[in-house]
Write a structure and sequence with these properties.
The protein is α+β, with helices and mostly antiparallel strands and 100 residues long. The protein contains 2 helices and 6 strands; from the N terminus they run ββββαββα.
Length: 100
């Protein structure tokens, strides 16, 4: 299960990315982190931008509501979602991971 840290209006969790994949998608769960495949290469922040785009689409949030807290140059990252509840995040992740 993905480990979530929840405050009043934010949800924070770990992400493990695999850049240069054939397409951007959820790949599953790995050691408490959400594993994502990203089509973008890890050059000039392109993979980080693709990560933000993918998460904003997945959780139906504006891109400004997805914040990369740490791991800008690493495969292991921490992201924070603003304006979403723990229940919404858990439900979305459950629906997406059920198919994996």
């Amino acid at each position: 299960m993905i480990k979530l840290t929840v405050t009043a209006q934010t949800v924070t969790f770990a992400v493990r990315v695999q850049p240069r994949a054939s397409r951007s998608e959820i790949a599953g769960e790995l050691d408490g982190a959400l594993k994502l495949r990203l089509a973008a290469p890890p050059v000039d922040g392109e993979a980080n931008e693709e990560l933000i785009r993918l998460l904003s689409k997945l959780f139906r949030l504006p891109r400004a509501s997805v914040e990369l807290l740490s791991g800008a140059t690493n495969k292991n990252k921490v992201v924070r979602l603003h304006g979403v509840s723990q229940a919404e995040v858990e439900q979305t992740l459950q629906n997406e991971l059920r198919d994996k």
